[in-house]
Write a sequence for this structure.
């Protein structure tokens, strides 16, 4: 039962994956999903309701960003 609950939570959270969202609106910057999650977590007054989802999303975004890193290094990163 606990495994199913964990799986359900992970599936629900993965639909809001920052790395995939930013790739749909391609900005071409390496680790853009991880940067977004970290930026929201470290801002002066983070929205506490989002913190649990960002903590779950951060490592998942890091994995997705790492997979896409070779492709993003070929493109230009604008800040």
């Amino acid at each position: 039962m606990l495994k199913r609950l964990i799986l359900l939570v992970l599936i629900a959270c993965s639909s809001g994956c920052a790395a995939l969202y930013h790739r749909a609106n391609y900005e071409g910057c390496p680790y853009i999903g991880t940067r977004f999650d970290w930026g929201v977590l470290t801002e002066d007054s983070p929205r506490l309701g989002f913190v649990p989802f960002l903590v779950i999303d951060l490592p998942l975004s890091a994995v997705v960003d790492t997979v896409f890193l070779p492709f993003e290094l070929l493109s230009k990163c604008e800040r």
Summary: Helices lie at 2-14, 18-24, 32-42, 51-73. The radius of gyration is 14 Å. The chain has a mean pLDDT of 76.
